[in-house]
Specification:
7-stranded mixed sheet; 16 strands; Metallo-beta-lactamase, Chain A; alpha+beta
Length: 281
């Protein structure tokens, strides 16, 4: 893929792949319907990606999400069906980059498959993977993740996030905050109360990183949401608003868990709200 948006060179890179329960991914949608789009294995699991965005300009090297990282135990790696090694680090190395080159990391939310790579092991310690980066997290997301309230904090892993605060590299952001020229966070809520999408703007065609508001192209359908979503009506509202914005402006959508279609446009449709548009960057 060769995609440039304003001053930014954009690459979709792998933060890993994993196996996930299909019923969790597709929520209320019956298996007899969703398995036509993505067949499950004998354990009812479907094969998913963890796409991250690498955005480079003359002054910045930025990541959106970080995949699973290197901290999971062998048992957890087997349970999640993770591929060997640390794909995000390899993807950076293949482009001549090391973790020290990254200047900013935007996290859509703090679930392990999106922020596990934000920290890594250094001997017995867990430290930020990117020592020269500022990590941007939605303020509500951070408050929920560190609240100790099991109703909202049960999906977070302490060692994925606490080292960010201890190192002084954490920056809490809110709706419409600009991280760098042309890059803005959009507080969506829905999947988690502090979930945020990321917009890379341009005078012509931009890009929207949806996070888990729409993890795969199958989730272009209004009612298809994950069973993890804390606020289903808000997920559907945010999804419709972001799709409308992308369709009306010709923006790209990143489908962060879709192995076959990591990026595409979306178009309005008279009968089905939205359909997948061009996949050719």
């Amino acid at each position: 893929m060769d995609l440039r948006i304003g001053p930014w060179q954009i690459d979709i890179i792998s933060g890993g792949e994993f196996m996930h329960d299909g019923g969790v991914l597709y929520g209320i949608v019956p298996k007899t319907i969703w398995e036509k789009f993505q067949p499950a294995d004998s354990l009812n699991r479907v094969h998913l990606a963890m796409h991250c965005v690498l955005a480079r300009s003359d002054e910045h090297v930025m990541l959106i999400d970080t995949g699973h990282g290197d901290k999971l135990s062998p048992l957890d790696r087997k349970s999640h069906g993770l591929m060997p090694g640390w794909p995000l680090r390899d993807a950076l190395a293949s482009r001549g980059l090391s973790p020290t080159d990254v200047t900013a990391v935007i996290l859509s939310h703090l679930h392990w498959d999106h922020c596990g790579g934000a920290t890594s092991r250094d001997g017995k310690d867990v430290v930020p993977t990117f020592p020269n980066a500022t990590y941007y997290v939605n303020q509500r997301e951070w408050e929920d993740a560190t609240s100790g309230d099991v109703n909202v904090s049960g999906g977070y892993v302490e060692e994925d996030i606490q080292p960010l605060a201890k190192s002084g590299q954490l920056a809490l952001v809110n709706h419409l905050d600009e991280i760098a020229p042309g890059i803005q966070v959009l507080h969506t809520g829905g999947h988690t109360r502090g979930h945020q999408a990321v917009l890379i703007k341009s005078a012509k065609r931009g890009l929207v990183f949806m996070g888990d508001i729409a993890p795969t192209t199958a989730h272009i359908r209004r009612m298809w949401c994950t069973s993890y979503d804390l606020d289903l009506p808000q997920t559907r509202k945010a999804k419709d608003e972001l799709f409308a914005y992308a369709a009306d402006n010709g923006h790209w959508i990143v489908w962060n868990h879709d192995r076959q279609t990591p990026i595409s446009q979306v178009n309005r449709h008279p009968k089905r709200d939205y359909v997948i548009g061009s996949r050719d960057c």
